């Protein structure tokens, strides 16, 4: 399959440079088409490209200055450790030359790096994935898939998987844990530990909210806070209230709770007032409504999280037959 330039005719140097331009989003349209053709030519190409991009998209901090070329070699080994499948030509070419571009990644804060924390006579290697204003997905060395919400951080040490698979979460993450009966997967969130062998769950640890939670989608997890222990079954959510030390358990709707990982705000069977209350909290604005008869109708739908409050109100107004206006930073939703 060919576009303006057949990617198979490029030299290694040209091919690697083109991939870097694509990853850093400065790739011209013609080059992007050629890469798309290469990815479509073989499912293994697409799989490898997605794996490389998932690592590339995660921001990682370090505890001291590092050698970008050396750290790229570490990235190569970690990608290789995550899969024993056939390696594509793109990864082989990338591994030979990409080190020179790693400093560009550091400057743009989109590369994978690691740091060291000195403790006693030996150095402990640590890795930290940090998201900014966007959601990012990546794969851990054991094959577990993690999706991090905006403004979140996940850390793990260099001995990850040696005895146990321990990670530390600040913020929010969605975990698809690779099953390993002999090695627990433990998420540490302050005073709370969530332990699993292989399962799918959502976890949240945001200091400003005053709660730490785990919402189980599939499998089974052990939720521990202090001397309190409980086991969750699917569609059950445990919430640890930091102030009181209390744990509450309730049911949840997985489609709604985990919609954030797809950049969606999903709602089901809400009255207009309930929906506007959630939008008010989400956008931190004041919304007032006089719903009238519409107030007894229930609505379901989904909104992209990237939308502004005005764009969200446009969609909700069309769905409910209402209209909105703004006065002195207050939004009013009324009948047409």
UniProtKB/TrEMBL annotation:
<dbReference type="GO" id="GO:0019867">
    <property type="term" value="C:outer membrane"/>
</dbReference>
<keyword id="KW-0472">Membrane</keyword>
<dbReference type="InterPro" id="IPR006860">
    <property type="entry name" value="FecR"/>
</dbReference>
<feature type="transmembrane region" description="Helical">
    <location>
        <begin position="101"/>
        <end position="119"/>
    </location>
</feature>
<dbReference type="Pfam" id="PF16344">
    <property type="entry name" value="FecR_C"/>
</dbReference>
<feature type="domain" description="Secretin/TonB short N-terminal">
    <location>
        <begin position="285"/>
        <end position="336"/>
    </location>
</feature>
<keyword id="KW-1133">Transmembrane helix</keyword>
<dbReference type="InterPro" id="IPR032508">
    <property type="entry name" value="FecR_C"/>
</dbReference>
<protein>
    <submittedName>
        <fullName>Fe2+-dicitrate sensor, membrane component</fullName>
    </submittedName>
</protein>
<dbReference type="InterPro" id="IPR011662">
    <property type="entry name" value="Secretin/TonB_short_N"/>
</dbReference>
<keyword id="KW-0813">Transport</keyword>
<keyword id="KW-0812">Transmembrane</keyword>
<dbReference type="InterPro" id="IPR032623">
    <property type="entry name" value="FecR_N"/>
</dbReference>
<dbReference type="Pfam" id="PF04773">
    <property type="entry name" value="FecR"/>
</dbReference>
<dbReference type="InterPro" id="IPR012373">
    <property type="entry name" value="Ferrdict_sens_TM"/>
</dbReference>
<dbReference type="GO" id="GO:0016989">
    <property type="term" value="F:sigma factor antagonist activity"/>
</dbReference>
<keyword id="KW-0998">Cell outer membrane</keyword>
<dbReference type="Pfam" id="PF16220">
    <property type="entry name" value="DUF4880"/>
</dbReference>
